[in-house]
Design brief:
Structural class: alpha/beta
Strand content: 5-15%
Order of helices and strands: EHEHHHEHEHEEHHEH
Number of helices: 9
Distance between the termini: 24 Å
Radius of gyration: 18 Å
Bound molecules: adenosine-5'-diphosphate, zinc ion
Helix content: 40-55%
Number of strands: 7
Largest sheet: 5 strands, parallel
Length: 232
Amino acid sequence: MSLNVIMMGPPGAGKGTQALLFAEKCGLPKISTGDILREAVSEGTSLGLKAKAVIDSGELVDDVTMIGIVRERLLKADVAAGFVLDGFPRTVSQAKALDGIVEELKKDSLIVVAIEVPDEDLLRRMTTRRVCQGCGRNADPVEAKLLSCPKCGGDFSQRTDDNIQVIKERLKVYARDTAPLLDYYNGRQTFCLIDGTQSPGRVSEMLLEAIKAVSRADSAVRTEPGQRIERE
Ligand code: ADP
Ligand code: ZN
């Protein structure tokens, strides 16, 4: 059985950090659409040229482009045992397309993790966030005092979209386009909500437990279709 996880939540909720921790723990590839776009921007590809202005305005890159990128990625062999998607889907039409891809490629059902953090915490986190230019990791509070990344030696710097105006726009776009996805996924056997206000280590533990619980429940449901699963 493969573990196909999508990590949802507002910008600054810790999706990227948690996706990385979980993917490393389970030996799965982490697929971050934000990282893919930022890489394209730094390489100056045609995708990068198109995406740069959109990202820096806080808006979303169009669905057709994003769906194409993710579909290509999910065709690769390294996702056979599963994947952790970070930053996708971000709109209901991306979510519908992803369901289509899962069906087309005959993949196990998606496990949907939504990390919840109140807006005031998000603002504080993003305005103080430092990101490694080398490996793309967010600096933890201790590392943030350093100039370069202890893992790869890359420079820590602020993302161009982590300034107050753009952050406010991203939160608006999240509420408008992405929050409706919670309703889209809510009610699925494999949907879990996680309190993202705790420390990264604690969030990671809760997330692991929640994913274990829902994937157990889901395989029970699929192997014994008559049985009802009681969930908290
Ligand atoms: P955040 O910290 O806001 O979650 P990400 O690193 O996931 O940031 O994404 C940065 C930017 O890249 C987004 O604000 C958006 O412009 C673009 N982007 C990333 N993923 C998607 C997507 N699935 N659909 C549309 N745009 C996206
Ligand atoms: Zn690094």
